[in-house]
Predict the 3D structure of the following.
Amino acid sequence: MKTTGSQENEGLLVRRIKNGTVIDHIDGGQALNVVKILGITGTTQEALSIATNVPSHDMVRKDIVKLTNRELSKEEVDRIALISPRATINIIRNFKVFEKKGVEIPTLIEGLVRCPNPGCISNTNEPITSKFEVLPKGLHCRYCDWVITRDNITGHII
């Protein structure tokens, strides 16, 4: 059977992992922000694979992040949901998908985002955790009414 150029390019872009997490359906161009949110640097122990701007049936383009030997906490998944609400989290055990779930954006976010308003009480030495209400247009600070727009959230995630 003769293959066309498009068929030759289909298939796995990166190797399967034995154990860990695959974050799929990340909004195109957001994979490096996901890695930053997870605190992954060149000095951490996880093996990391990143695919960016991959063609997708459901999305125009998507990114994929694979982490070996690591499963994400709920807090980490909530952070990912802020920048990529369509992402899916796949827990891999012994090369098989053990669990697959979508991310959920909480209605109230506590301690995950820093308010950009320098005068906000959450940025002082008071023992207060930042609190943001999630709105369609972005995040609304419960203390000072500052709004972080959706396209500017990444820079404020703690």
